[in-house]
UniProtKB/TrEMBL annotation:
Belongs to the GerABKA family. Residues 9-20 have a biased composition (Polar residues). This is Spore germination protein. Keywords: Membrane, Transmembrane, Transmembrane helix. It is found in: Cell membrane; Membrane. The keyword Ribosomal protein does not apply. Signal peptide: none annotated. It is a multi-pass membrane protein. Residues 1-20 are annotated as: Disordered. The chain crosses the membrane at residues 280-304, 372-395, 407-428. It comes from Thalassorhabdus alkalitolerans.
Length: 474
């Protein structure tokens, strides 16, 4: 990875002179985890952080050879090993912080690459589970994540450029794209946005997305994030630009359209007819979770003439003991569902599942028996909650859950007019969004009939568009 220069608070004279051990140690005052090892026979001093280096590599490439070689042979050692000469204090300090070992010998300073901290092994993703297809997922080590991509795309057209973000953390950010497939305007725009980020700390790719997206105040996510290397590889081949952050197990890609949040990696590993049916089911679930409860409130409050007579009698009987109007009743139950959902997500897995199931059954039954809510409303809220789980993207599902409360309030005050007005406002907002200067509603705006086949359904591979790419940049 590219090493960036640290900007120390030293004087210009110190920057222009060869770094000394005393100067470097001054930067690490009160850093008790810094290891300082001396080899009297070779007259050298080695500085490194023990938890940032690989012990076997350190012993094999540096400490072992130093004990065997005499002082006169030190130059030969550093010629043989992969090393860099540190000419400035800033370079040496930054190298140590990046997991290198600094060797001080006479008036010279060498940096040896022995980076190898402990990291999580490659495992299956817990948030993006699939039935078929690969089960490996990204981890928190950028080098490991890049290897998962390189293993799938064995092409020299895959370009990877490194940047840094965070004035304190100096986090490495990798920008990936396929030369000849990705739009040059998108690549240059992403480079410009990443280099212009001004923040103290960067720990996660979703943090980066919030700094570089076009509409930070919108509820809808504008960058698709994923932990799956197979999905990232597929998007790179399709001409997407990907950003990966060191320390983050997820990657973000652009340009992204609204409909991509309803696609799952499973779609590409099953027969196209089955995958198409499942994708359409997700779009239907999106409409259900967004409008079903609001539609119930509007019908019960203002438009009960739309309900069949037999069903109307049952609803009236169910609501006879409820002291609250439909709007208050619906908001209470939706709020309770969100509390259960959040409690289940924050608790340990086994306890969280128990809280979600038992809590929902007990509270729902108790609410009906106590006359706080009607049985019809509980069924409506439950269907809306289940439909929200069908959406593959957690960020999109969360945004829809928040918007649902606004539609319920509009429906409670204005009936169907308020519900339709809210949906029109959402549609106008979606049509106005841009993702790195690209329309968020592609291929609807602008209308590209050729791409419809792989947007609302997953068409057969032989019908996949090839050749020149359609430009959506405006």
């Amino acid at each position: 990875m590219k090493r960036s220069l640290l900007h120390p608070k030293s004087t210009q004279e110190q920057e222009n002179s060869s770094p000394s051990l005393k100067e470097v140690l001054r930067h690490f005052e009160r850093c008790d985890d810094l290891i300082e090892r001396k080899t009297p026979d070779a007259d050298t001093t080695v500085l490194y952080f023990n938890h940032l280096v690989e012990e076997d590599k350190l012993e094999r490439n540096l400490l072992g050879p130093l004990r065997e070689k005499k002082e006169a042979d030190i130059n030969e050692l550093f010629i043989e090993e992969q090393s860099a000469v540190g000419k400035k204090t800033a370079e040496v300090v930054d190298g140590i912080l990046s997991g290198e070992a600094a060797v001080f010998w006479k008036n010279q300073t060498f940096l040896i690459d022995v980076y190898g901290p402990e990291s999580r092994t490659v495992q299956s993703s817990e948030t993006e589970t699939v039935v078929s297809g690969p089960h490996d997922a990204f981890v928190e080590t950028l080098g490991t994540n890049l290897s998962l991509i390189r293993r799938r795309i064995k092409s020299f057209d895959l370009k990877i450029e490194f940047f840094q973000a965070g004035t304190v953390t100096k986090t490495d950010v990798a920008l990936l794209y396929m030369k000849g497939r990705a739009e040059e305007e998108t690549v240059e725009e992403m480079k410009k946005r990443i280099t212009s980020v001004k923040m103290d700390a960067l720990f996660e790719s979703t943090m980066l997305a919030q700094y570089i997206d076009d509409h930070p105040n919108s509820l809808f996510p504008q960058f698709l994030t994923t932990e799956r290397p197979d999905l990232i590889s597929s998007k790179l081949v399709d001409g997407k630009v990907v950003a990966m952050v060191d320390g983050s197990p997820s990657a973000l890609m652009t340009p992204t359209s609204f409909f991509e949040f309803f696609a799952s990696p499973d779609d590409f590993y099953q027969r196209w007819i089955l995958s198409s049916a499942t994708r359409l089911l997700r779009l239907v679930a999106f409409l259900i979770t967004l409008t079903f409860t609001a539609f119930y409130v509007a019908v019960i409050t203002y438009h009960y003439e739309l309900i069949p007579e037999d069903l109307l009698l049952q609803i009236a009987s169910s609501r006879a003991q409820v002291p609250f109007p439909p709007l208050v009743e619906a908001l209470m139950m939706e709020f309770t569902i969100e509390l259960l959902r959040e409690a289940g997500a924050r608790l340990p897995t086994k306890i969280g599942q128990t809280i979600g199931i038992v809590g929902g059954i007990v509270i729902g039954q108790a609410a009906v028996q106590a006359g706080i809510a009607s049985g019809i409303l509980l069924v409506t809220v439950a269907i809306s909650a289940i439909a929200s789980f069908v959406i593959p993207s957690y960020l999109m599902s969360t945004a829809i859950r928040v918007i649902r409360f606004g539609l319920i309030i509009l429906a409670g005050f204005l009936g169907h007019f308020g519900l339709v007005a809210g949906l029109v406002f959402i549609l106008i907002h979606l049509a106005s969004l841009r993702n790195v200067r690209t329309s968020y509603m592609v291929p609807l705006t602008p209308l590209v009939l050729r791409d419809m086949l792989f947007t609302f359904i997953r068409g057969p591979y032989w019908a996949r568009p090839k050749g020149a790419k359609e430009k959506y940049i405006k």
